[in-house]
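Blinded run. Sample ID left blank on purpose so nobody reads anything into the name before looking at the predicted structure. Input follows.
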Amino acid sequence: MADDVLSLQKIQNACWIVLAGLTLGSFFVISVSFAWSVLAGGVISNMSFFVSQKDIKGFVESITSSSEPDDRKVKAKQGQKGYLLKFWLRIAIIGIVLLFFIKSGVVNIFGLILGLSTVVLAITFVAMNVIRHYYFSGRR
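Blinded prediction complete.
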C-alpha cells in the first residue's frame, strides 16, 4: 500500500504537474518572460532529478545483481566511482547552463529560481499527501 501512495514515478509525475501549474500561473499572472524562465528552470530541475533517479537505480541494481559478497564489494566500489563522476558532471553541466542563462539575460532570475524549485515543491506535495493518507485512513 505504501508503494502505491509513495513512488518515484508518482514524484516524477508530480514534478511535471507542479511545473505546468507554475508555468501557466506565471504566464497568466506575471508575464510571458517570467513563465519561460520558470519553464527553463523547471525543465533543468526535473531532468536532473530524472537522471539522478536513473543513476541511483542502476547503481543499486548493479550491486544487488550478484549473490557473492566479494563480487558485491567490487561492484559497489566501481559503481560508486561511476555514480560520483556522473553526479559531478551533471552538476557542472547545470552550472554552465545556468551561467549561460543568467549572463545572457534571457531569463528572469526569480522565475528561474522558482522553476528550479519544482522538485522540492513536488516532493513536499507528495509527502503531504502521504501524511494526509496516513491520518485519514484510520491507521494511527
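Unblinding after everyone has recorded impressions. Residues 2-136 form one domain.
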